[in-house]
Design a protein that fits this description.
GO terms for molecular function: acid-thiol ligase activity. This is AMP-dependent synthetase. Pfam families: AMP-binding, AMP-binding_C. The chain is α/β, with parallel strands linked by helices. It contains 14 helices and 25 strands. Helix 1 runs antiparallel to helix 2 and helix 10 crosses helix 11.
Length: 491
């Protein structure tokens, strides 16, 4: 494999030759054809003056041409920013602020009026003829390869800086370096269903993994599960917890033939053990639960054989540390610090935040968890997801996990609300398990019996589903109205 990214992608497509690597809108595209498209887009970008260090925003769908545009932008050494659907106008302006070029396809649309140069894929492809010569990779190891933005659930997304050296160090394109869980997943990626945008970090990296595993990328205009799986005979796809819940409910009510399905990769938010067991009952052993961060990439992944609730054995350097920064023994909760081969180098133009999170080569995840005696990882909460009761700090995670163990509860979410007596108090929102109506008194008693009294919710609200951010993560900020008025029970 070529040493510098994206040389490994070019090698992969060259080796694929006449093998189908993409199915899109009735077309089947071979590795050789996709490589030719990469060459044409690369030549087109250079014709327009795009080169090393240039900021390029990608507003793209999931076509073979979109894939080629992502790869070509890296071939010329650009600083790439992916713009995903669903962002607010303010968030999109923030992402586009430092880019000189935008690459778009006709289905993705413009990112707003700008004086910069907007390059349409059709124009790039027609700018020059394909000369059949492998394009020279202009990327330099320490150049910024891409700015990967966080979900933006707390406002404007933060940009994580990933260098070309870090992308080269990633294991995705190197089967010999695949961790055991990824190796098991790769064997199921015969037909990987892609949707949304290939400018997405998650979608593109699973796409590259699929190609490295010898599979085919199959596109869907939108992720209509289970219809898309059945229609395209997909063996694998990415799914959020909310979509997985709906898929399971749909299959219970009106089953479709999902005999092709072998893997669903859940990421973005925790998957409660009860939800996982229900999914396994309905769909079979197909759920892989990944844990990672924008800052680090994948940290760990649970296979269908792992203990429900755990995240498997991390294949990266991981330490659980106490409040003073010292590692703690197995079975002890603490904050997770990790080192991964492809981790980002910091936050774009935010030195203070970089110094807080990137510590002596480690990334401070600000997640709480523990390692058991067999090395399995268990998440227990977020360091910033807290309630301060009578000046004492309590984490929301333990309350949420405890509530979710009750047989009448499918999901639980805890937030802090103002309280005249204690400063803040716990407000719990629960999604009922199918066919159940939770008894609010029972849930309060459960918390009181197992945790400190300050953790007991002063309010409990039944909800049908949790609101989501544009990235598909639970958005707890939207649960409580500004005036904190609810129609639910108190003590």
């Amino acid at each position: 494999m070529s040493e510098q990214f994206p040389g490994g992608v070019l090698d992969l497509l060259d080796a694929a030759g006449g093998r189908p690597v993409f199915e899109h809108a009735g077309r089947t595209v071979s590795g050789a054809e996709l490589l030719a498209t990469v060459r044409r887009v690369t030549h087109g970008l250079r014709t327009y003056g795009v080169g090393p260090g240039e900021g390029v925003a990608l507003l793209l769908g999931v076509s073979p041409e979109a894939f080629a545009a992502v790869v070509a932008a890296h071939v010329v050494g650009a600083r790439v920013v992916g713009v995903r659907p669903g962002l607010t106008e303010r968030q999109q302006r923030h992402l586009l602020a430092d880019t000189a070029f935008e690459i778009t396809d006709r289905t993705a649309g413009r990112g707003g009026d700008r004086s910069g140069r907007v390059l349409v894929l059709d124009d790039l492809l027609s700018a020059v003829a394909d000369d059949g010569v492998r394009p020279e990779v202009s990327a330099r190891p320490q150049d910024v390869a891409r700015l990967i933005h966080t979900s933006g659930s707390t406002g404007v997304p933060k940009a994580c800086v990933q260098t070309y050296a870090a992308m080269t160090a990633a294991w995705t394109l190197r089967p010999a370096a695949w961790p055991p869980a990824v190796r098991e997943l790769a064997a199921r990626l015969d037909r990987f269903l892609v949707f949304g945008t290939l400018a997405s970090q998650v979608m593109m990296e699973y796409g590259l993994l699929t190609l490295a595993a010898g599979g085919t990328l199959v596109t869907a205009e939108r992720p209509d599960f289970p219809d898309s799986i059945a229609r395209y005979r997909a063996t694998a796809s990415v799914i959020t917890v909310a979509r997985l819940t709906k898929l399971v409910a749909n299959q219970r009510e009106s089953p479709q033939d999902l005999g092709s399905l072998r893997a669903l990769m859940v990421s973005g938010s925790p998957l409660e053990p009860g939800r996982l067991r229900e999914a396994a009952e309905v769909l079979g052993p197909v759920v892989f639960h990944g844990y990672g961060q924008t800052e680090t990439g994948m940290i760990s992944m649970a296979t269908p054989q792992d203990v429900p609730g755990s995240l498997g054995v991390p294949p990266v350097d991981l330490e659980v540390r106490d409040a003073s920064g010292r590692p703690v023994p197995p079975g002890t909760d603490g904050e997770l610090f990790v080192r991964t081969p492809a981790q980002s180098a910091g936050y774009w133009r935010e030195p203070a935040l970089t110094a807080e999170v990137y510590v002596d080569g480690w990334v401070r995840t600000r997640d709480l968890g523990r390692l058991d005696t067999e090395g399995r990882l268990w998440l227990t909460g977020r360091t910033r997801d807290v309630i301060i009761v009578n000046a004492n700090l309590y984490y929301a995670g333990p309350v949420e996990r405890l509530l979710a163990t009750h047989p009448s509860v499918a999901e639980a979410y805890v937030v802090a609300v103002p309280d005249d007596d204690t400063g803040e108090a716990v407000h719990a929102f629960v999604v009922p398990a199918p066919g159940h109506v939770p008894d609010l008194g029972e849930l309060r008693a459960l918390v009181t019996a197992n945790l400190e009294e300050a953790n007991t919710p002063t309010r409990l609200t039944l909800i049908q589903e949790v609101p989501l951010t544009p990235a598909g993560k639970p958005d707890k900020q939207r649960l409580v109205p500004d005036d904190d008025v609810t129609g639910t029970a108190g003590p």
